[in-house]
Amino acid sequence: METTIELTVDGERRSLTVDTRTTLLDALRERLGNTSPKKGCDHGQCGSCTVLLDGRRHLTCLALALSYDGAEITTAAGLARDGLHPVQQAFLDHDGYQCGYCTPGQVCSAVGMLDEAAGGVPSHVTDDLAVPTTLEDLDDGEIRERMSGNLCRCGAYPGILAAVREVAGA
Amino acid sequence: MRELAYLRPSDPADAVSLVANDPDARFLGGGTNLVDHLKLGVATPGTLVDVSHLPLDALEEHDGGLLVGANVRNSDLAADRRVRTGWPVLSRALLSGASGQIRNQATTAGNLLQRTRCVYFLDVTTPCNKREPGSGCSAAEGYGRYNAILGAGPACVTVHPSDLAVGLVAVDATVVVLGPDGERRVPAADLHRLPGDDAARDTVLGHGELITAVELPRSAHARTSTYVKVRDRASFAFALVSVAVAIDRAEDGTVRDLRIVWGGVAHKPWRATRAEDALRGRPLTEAGVRDAAEAELDQARPTAGTEYKPAMVRNATALAFRRLVPDLAEEAR
Q: Any idea which GO molecular function terms this record carries (chain A) (predicted)?
């Protein structure tokens, strides 16, 4: 069964016809030619397909494209449209990658995560749930916990941590 | 993946009738579990009825407590100020599960209806009574580290993976269900079931029944509650064991009421009623908590691979109490 949907991807409105079974990740990569989100595990365990969907970090592999008709998606490529995003620059400055395959997902996840923390969202390692968190609360433990959905098989975690910490300003 | 029809009703009653009238149809929520199952061949529906766009996303005061719509995302429920202060066990349970991305996507109802992560259930080349009734249980004699120690049957030895479900039992939540014959209310404690000889059914819900909301009553014990989860890595992993504790103490420290619920030990959240009975109406001590856990664990039947679970759940229970009752922590030092 094929259906036509509309997606706004990195600021561009796109119309495409997809099979019911097409994931958002395959729609972006194979149909729209946006290879910024990566297919790592394809089972929601690695985070390399992470994008910002309607402003929040979101996996695209465990998502059927049809269900996201009308969504607004920003990929890591889109974050760099007007020059590198501060998170991307920080990844460069701190060697927050080695092979780079997980990096677009890491970057989108970090951007979404910083928004969540600035908005007072707690994490598993937050001591006091009654007090809303701020960016200043993002110590190493908080950043590691909040970024745990993004794996890096090269093990560039120290650089990723330093990059995110710098942007958080904690 | 099998060919699929996709329907997006705009009304919960329409969604219910679409699934109720088609044995081959399934509800699709946030998709974090079901889409994976489609890829693996674990789920092979002919039709998906997408309920993720239904207007079931209210999170509002209701009857002195909170009403949580089925589509409220795990991240939004965990971050809600009222939940963090009135039902902290739920925030803790949710934040200990999955990843930031998945919590943004997964829904309240979908979290409760997620299916086991038993490696044999997920491997379609192996027998599994839950996936294919009558085919046998590979886990009973196989890799057993994640298996149940309480309430397992010959048909199935797996555990339920939801952290939220464990927390909801500790706060006496009620699940609101819409079915072809109208609405009914199911206590969270009765939603999931033990496998018995019918491992295919995780819950008491029938085909076509849709969870529309979860009701959270306000209580003194819910306000003083927490969740301890023990897992193989520090984050983004399912529980080896987990413990939800909610406690209401009198001025003199005696336990007026409490809930102890264990995850990772059974086919459903395991309310440790024997342990609760041993502690209710008495002053709390660390030794008392450990003895109470032991009383509950008299019924435990660890098997090859799960020998570690009784001690782990007993210690995790003591840790949960120490987090809630500072003088207990003093005494333990």
A: 2 iron, 2 sulfur cluster binding; metal ion binding; oxidoreductase activity, acting on the aldehyde or oxo group of donors
Q: Are residues A13 and A74 in the same domain?
A: yes
> Inter-chain contact A144–B234, Cβ cutoff 8 Å?
yes
Contact: A59, B101; criterion CB under 8 Å: yes
**pLDDT-flagged residues of chain B (< 50):** none
Q: Do B105 and A62 touch (CB under 8 A)?
A: yes
Sequence-ordered list of residues with C-beta below 8 angstroms from that of B60, at least 6 positions apart, any chain:
B66, B67
Q: Do A42 and B35 touch (CB under 8 A)?
A: no
Q: What is residue B331's predicted lDDT score, i.e. its pLDDT?
A: 65
- Answer whether residue A170 shows pLDDT above 80: no
Q: What is the per-residue pLDDT across A73-89, written as a single tens digit (0 to 9) for each?
A: 999 999 999 999 999 99
Q: DSSP letter at A135?
A: G
- Position B2 scores a pLDDT of 82
What pLDDT is recorded for position B213?
98
> Do A72 and A99 share a domain, yes or no?
no
Instruction: Report the residue of A18, A57, A68, A133 to disrupt the B interface, i.e. the one with the largest count of B CBs within 10 Å.
Output: A57
**C-beta separation of A110 from A90 below 8 A:** no
- Assess whether A98 and A125 both reside in one domain: yes
Q: What is the DSSP letter of A67?
A: G
Tell me whether residue B268 is in a domain.
yes
Kindly state the percentage of chain A with pLDDT values over 90: 98
Q: Do A58 and B105 touch (CB under 8 A)?
A: yes
Q: What is the pLDDT of residues A18-28, one digit of tens each?
A: 999 999 999 99
Model confidence pLDDT, tens digit, residues A109-138: 999 999 999 999 999 999 999 999 999 999
How many domains does chain A contain in total? 2
CA nearest to B53 within chain A = A67
Q: Helix, strand, or coil here: A163?
A: helix
Distance in angstroms (rounded) separating the CA atoms of residues B319 and B227: 10
Number of H helices and E strands in chain A, helices first, is 6, 5
Tell me the shortest Cα–Cα distance from A56 to chain B, in angstroms. Answer: 7
**Is B91 an interface residue toward A (CB < 8 Å)?**
yes
Determine which of A3, A19, A21 to mutate to test the interface with B (most B C-beta atoms within 10 Å): A21
- Mark which of A79, A109, A128 sits at the end of a domain: A79
Residue where the block lists tokens 């995780």: B202
pLDDT of residue B201: 97
A30 CB-near residues (< 8 Å, 6+ apart): none
